[in-house]
Description:
By secondary structure, the chain is an all-alpha fold.
Amino acid sequence: xxxxxxxxxxxxxxxxxxxxxxxxxxxxxxxxxxxxxxxxxxxxxxxxxxxxxxxxxxxxxxxxxxxxxxxxxxxxxxxxxxxxxxxxxxxxxxxxxxxxxxxxxxxxxxxxxxxxxxxxxxxxxxxxxxxxxxxxxxxxxxxxxxxxxxxxxxxxxxxxxxxxxxxxxxxxxxxxxxxxxxxxxxxxxxxxxxx
Length: 195
């Protein structure tokens, strides 16, 4: 039950933050409404671009229509990585691991949940978890003089970024970008557990 409450808190936190980040970065004609999940998903151009499997081109009108209409061959499932997982939201078709888990919104989501929403403004780092470790050290130093609220990474003694935490945030961000209103392990054709 505690995990469900924590997941709900993280989902709530990211719902507003992700909409803000998407609107700031993509400046969509139809901004993502922080309070309305129905305006997200593949019906929203910016969310659709980020949710689109990275190996296909959302900008191609045939692809976009195929995904939106759930045409065979374009049904988005858990077998493909969405564009938001990649650096600059683009995958290299010859090397699908290049840039994977370096997407700006994924990194911002990670920092917002495990350190603080304000730390998500700065996503510079070398990708090896250095920011989480550095933030933990800085927080420990500051606790000697002043009482400071501990962040999640400190509470769970997270010293580095681990695959399980990346998977958790990837699921959270994907859910936040989608139009689905309540958390389920299987969301239509998309299975979060397999993802």
